Every structure is written in structure tokens, then in C-alpha cells.
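Crash report, auto-generated. Payload:
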Amino acid sequence: MKIEQLNKSKVPIIVLDKKLEQFRGKVLFPDKLKKANEILAKTGLPKIKS
Amino acid sequence: MKQAKYQYRSEDLFHYYEFISEGPKGLIKKIIEYTETSTENVYNLGFGDYDELTKGVNDLSITNNGDSLKVLATVASTVYAFTEKYPEAWIFATGSTAVRTRLYRMGITNNLAEISEDFLVFGYNREGNWVPFVTGEDYEAFLLTKKDNKFAI
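Recovered output after restart:
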């Protein structure tokens, strides 16, 4: 993939890499996840359909 | 996004992504993670530098590699990848610091027209409500989902 093609593409072309499976099941950003869960528990999701 | 971006790699579930930032500070490995939250179909977007020594990530490091727009565009690009795979997903994002959150806000603002073609974007305001993202307003966090998410409530 040429970089020009990559930059024009809205939906990206993904290169799969088995090595990244090492992260499966891990939470790499626990503080952010905690904050997300706190806000979602308090406020839920926005209502976008009536 | 029309902004230049790095090519990145993913495992086959599209929950973890890796790319290399290139700049005056050298080659710096970045990791992006989409983690399930306790709310169904909502995923937390995390992103930071990978530390080869500790085998961990740091979302507080200041890389100063002169490519913040390209990095942000790359992260945004993974949102397209992730929601292609999980079209019913909502994505929650906030910065690790107030400065980072403002950087995210700028990134959304600068690309709002294009993002809005495909996504609904909300900001979490000081009153503790999700409101449609408006340029110039301050938010603590962001939430987006594909416009055609048939499961959106």
C-alpha cells in the first residue's frame, strides 16, 4: 500500500499482526476505563431517537 | 480524514492497534486499545506510547515527535476500522489530561464536517450531560457512534 493511497482512504486497509494478540484480555488504560464506566453509570447514553 | 496518517497493524478482533510515530525523537511505538465498558456495545478508546522495557503503555508521556496531527489522524482512522467491524458500537474517548482532552476536541472540531458524514458525535459537558458536539464548547469526554447504528437508542 502506498502512503498516498493510505491517506486518501477513509476506511483504512488493515495489516493484521498476530503479535498484537499478546494484549488480549488486558486492560492497558484502566484509569480511562474507570472514568468511562463512572460517566456511563451516571448518565447512560445520549438519546438520539424519539 | 484527509490528514496524513501512519499505517497501522491490528490483531484480528480489531481491539488493539499498533503504529510507529516517526520524528525528531526517533521511532516511537504507539498502541491503541478499544476496551469493553460495563455498558453493552460501548468501548473505551485508550491510546499511548508502548514501553519496550516494561512491556506496558503510558498515556501520560509527552512524545514531542512533531507529528501530533498525524498521530491523531491515525487514531481517528482506527475508529473507522473498529466501527466497520462493530457497526453497533459506541466509542467513548477522553484525554489522560485536560490538555489532551482539548487536543481531542480540536481534532474533532477540525474534522467535524467529515466525521459528521458518518458519525453522531456527543460531548460530555460540565453539567454532566451528553449533548451534540458543538464547536467551541468545552467537554470532559466524547462519545460517537455510526449514524446508521440501528441499535442506537
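Post-recovery validation: The CA atoms of residues 1 and 13 of chain A lie 8 Å apart.
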